[in-house]
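Q: Joint fold for the lines below.
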Amino acid sequence: MIDALGSPGSLLLVGGTSDIAVATARRYLAERPLRVVVAARDTPRRSAVADELRAAGGDVEVVDFDAEDPSSAERMVAAAAAGGDIDVAVIAFGQLGDQDQLASDPAAAAALGQVNYVAPVVVGTLLANRMREQGHGVIVALSSVAGERARRSNYVYGSTKAGLDAYFSGLADSLVGTGVSVLVVRPGFVRSKMTEGLPEAPLSTTPEAVAEAIVSGVRKGRHTVWVPGAMRWVMSGLRHTPRAIFRRLPF
Amino acid sequence: MSDQVLLNGWGRTAPTPAVLTPVHDDAQVRAVLAAAGGRGVVARGLARSYGDAAQNAGGHVLDMTAADRVLAFDAETGLVDVEAGISLDELMNRFVPQGFFVPVTPGTRLVTVGGAIGADIHGKNHHVAGSFSQHVRWLDLLTADGEVHRVSPEQDPDLFWATAGGMGLTGVILRAQVQMKRIESSRCLVDTDRTPDLDSLMSLLAETDHLYEYSVAWIDTLAKGKRMGRSVVTRGRFATLDELPEKRKADPLKYHGSIKVTVPDVFPPGLLNLATVAAFNELWYRKSPKRKRNQLQSIPTFFHPLDAVGGWNRIYGPRGFVQYQVTVPFGQEEAMREVLDRLSSFGTASFLAVLKRFGPGNPGMLSYPSPGWTLALDIPVMKGLAGLLDSLDEVVIAAEGRTYLAKDSRVRPETFATMYPRLEEFRAVRKRVDPEGVFTSDLARRLAL
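A: Joint structure:
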């Protein structure tokens, strides 16, 4: 159960080896010990993450999950819930893709859609069902400012995040009164392994800052957070920028 | 499920949905139990627990207040048999005019007998009378097998003392026999003392508490430095017939307990801030007499000042509040000072804190009172509070103290287990009477009870 002051007793990280997922678990564990379920592919990185979170005081379980395998989500949620109620679930997996390839390769575009949109929707539906039954819980979905208005430099990625964002925003409204809530997180450019080697965009942020925003958003019962907070106003401006100007912007 | 309602505790934090069913008799309780399903059942009374004790996310909650009859009363002995949903308020309305008061009352009359046993509540007379369960002769408990067991300190004492303070997790308390306390009048003779700091408060209580049946101190938590712990102490007992003024002797047991005003649900968050609360506390301290003896007060004025204001929990706004109540043994006064000091310097906009000395504890496995000092204060939900209270818990644990489940909404499960070394005994009894864990609550899940 999430207590009166917003501290959960259990945390499910879907895409548990992502930098943001790990930073979120670390941030929670800095306050209190809790049960952490790391759902990810069986890789050396997953073992390393599990070890690290155990050392930080977590009661850690690992569960198999592969966003590219449509059947793995159901097994993952069942396995994660077997150990007790899931208080907070962070849907943190996603890929950036290579825009040059995505622009011309339909198979690559479809694959990105599977990982960044279809799989989160499947996981979100399963988690919402599960949490409706348990009568409480928070689903945290990692969206992106890229989904607010697709840019020519990464519109395939942006479109998947737009779909994800729309799905979880609608899901949030459908869950009012059930005890379950959804927090949609819209970070800007996050310096992480996903963006390694890419030039930094303005207002870039870190996995730790995103984790901080997640913990504080859950604590306050927020529905949407931007990271950094100023992104909200920047994106609001960009959404209303005329297309003739927007498409010429240098990022 | 469509017939779920969102339920919360007195602190108005962390609401969760459940199917709430009013139950009038044993058969209705059994019916809900049979239909419970995987998320289980818990009984709910007047919902004065601050946290999540009477909530059960996704499951069933029994509204016990529908079962509120007096079944038998012996005017010779003062023994009363009641249904568990009756409130202490109703017991006072019925029996004060007949010369009987409840054996123990907390700061509110608006609790049920079932809740009073489940939380093993205490009052201003703990140092002489113990807690509520010590005045319960027997109780009827409906357990997970659907059977009703009459348990008492003699009949299945383990189950009795797991149920007293067991927060409803052993079964549903249906009925109980309570030993009422004989009174000659409905008026209290009250002595008031003002103490300028914590040291003088603690020595006053330690030296003279035994002279009073009822005793409590209200501390201004915002006073700092030399004035830290400045307090108003009110102590008293029921007046005898002889002690009443002539005009009251004709109707010595006259009693009128009522809610005078109700707070509307319109308070914005942050209305109670340091400035407004400090001003209130200052005024309250200055208007109290330095020393006053033998003042006649009514039961509501002396015991339940806040009950005059219905729904006062709304003044904390929609984000709600928590109550931090802890006890430390005698000899650990320094720990109490540190807790108070850190709360005061953190700048929580708290009204008054309550300090009291407990007498001996009882065999209740999760019963809260134990010999020592108990401190309670309300704190609005604010940034940094979770970390502060976690660190205060460390101070309390080091002093071998504990926190009170009826007030708790945020303690860490492992902290709770350290504070209550008899938790394993409680779990063993629960396993015996409820192996499947049908009786459960948000509190039970949060603390892995």
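Q: Anything notable?
A: The first helix of chain A runs from residue 19 to 29. Chain A has nine helices and seven strands.
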